[in-house]
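Troubleshooting log. The previous structure file for this entry was overwritten by mistake, so regenerating from the original sequence record. Sequence copied from the archived sheet and checked twice against the printout by T.R.
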Amino acid sequence: MKKYIFLLLAVGSWLLAGAQETGDGYADRFNEHLNAGLQSSITMSVELPLYAYNTQVFTLQDTVTGGPAGYMYEGYFITDSAQVDSAVMTLQEGIRKFPNRLDLYFGLAATYLYIDQPDMMIGIVERAMQQEKKNNGKWLWTNDELTPDTIDYMYERVQEDFARFWAAEDLERSERVAQMAVKYYPKRAEYWNNMGVVALWKEDFSEKPNFKKAMKYFKKALKLNPDDELIKANIEYIRGIEK
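Regenerated output below.
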């Protein structure tokens, strides 16, 4: 009898392992762990967490000063750290086994943001950039289906992250995302424009501003995309300052 019980357990373990050996299996397990360990609810606070930037946020106005008194948004709270850790480890393993599943990278990046680890988030996005150089943008998503060629997922992700840190006035991480982007995508004008924006911001707060670096980045961006009105406006802005 014990022999048959052992065999049943062994077969059950094999089936469980087999069910996980797909990108969807890892995504499903990740969602189970994350839902068990992370709770979302409408939140009010004086300051915004990073994940709330560029999402729907209601600003509470101070009736005396007229400025913001606080914010209301969808917040995230860890209710079971072990479950969240399991969710993270599940996606880390899933990415190792299925390196072309872009949803796994983005799911892990979002989780790092929810649990206030933005540097880890930037790191996993960079891993996705490295992988895109290998797969030439042929990413897989749910059911191992190819992502549509009409959507540039990595471009949208990078711009979203840059905008998030920029809105939070996090100059250091804004610059890190911008530098990372031009490293892997040197022919994207928008990324060089981001570099120019960061350089411009630095000089705006400098005792002896020197806008040469910012102008260099903007001109490089304009050379890559001569019709971009935003880049032209940034160049004209510097010229107006220097007059």
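The two ends are 92 Å apart (CA to CA). Archived copy saved in two places this time.
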